[in-house]
Amino acid sequence: MALSWSGLPGWRWCWLVTVCCLFTLPSLIIPVSGIAFHLPPNIRKCLREEVQKDDVVKGEFELSVAPQEIKTHLHILDSKGHKLYEKEDAQKGKFAFSVEEYEMIEICFETKFDTPYGRPPPPPREISFLIRHGVEAKNYEDIAKAEKLKPMEAELRRLEDLSDAIVESFNHMRKREDEMRGTNEQTSSRVLYFSVFSMLCLLALTTWQVLYLRRFFKAKKLIE
Question: Where is the GOLD domain (predicted)?
């Protein structure tokens, strides 16, 4: 039997590499969005996040300390403008909600401050924001305790949910690709019909212009 570099049989080496990939790659592709930025006074800044159908969305936010007259408001809206979460005078906190269909949610921070005359505006406020959805939003420790799963079983459950999420993402991308292809085909056919119609109109206008000029020159006895 041939031996690999590590002295293990070839099939065991392949099995070991496969298991390592299964436990390592998911940590690289789990959707986690964390961001930190500075928000000047009286400025509204919005972030957008793509969320799949039936996803649970969890997030955390923390703002730097600011004077009492500075208020920063947090609003999370769906694609139709409905408020999914709202926090006036946000300082620090968490939120969680779910969506029933595919959404492009919008997370907006807005700072309100009335600058007195002659007083310089305060410095920008630092905002730290973290959002999780899909597999990352699930707490598999609680699931393991509730269902009495072993650590390996809980990890396999997470990998199963992750694979389902990846398949769902690919299906959604394929659906969007089909929609875009249909739109492109409809646009191409409409452009073709419009081009043919424009050519027919130009041909008719040219024919009418030639006939009109011929009658005009005959009336002026410039041609026979």
Answer: 44-133
Name the CA radius of gyration of the chain, rounded. Answer: 32
Query: CATH second-level architecture of 29-137?
Result: Sandwich (2.60)
User: What are the structural domain ranges in the chain?
Assistant: 29-137, 139-224
Question: What pLDDT is stored for residue 117 in this prediction?
Answer: 63
The answer, as to whether pTM is greater than 0.90, is: no
Among 8, 130, 15, smallest CA distance to 61 is for 130
In sign, the C-alpha dihedral spanning 95, 104, 63, 45 is negative
* Neighbour count for residue 155 (Cβ, 10 Å): 16
Q: Which strand ranges, in their side-by-side order, compose the sheet holding 125-133?
A: 32-39, 125-133, 56-63, 92-98
In degrees, rounded to 5, the angle at the alpha carbon of residue 134 between the alpha carbons of residues 109 and 143 is: 120
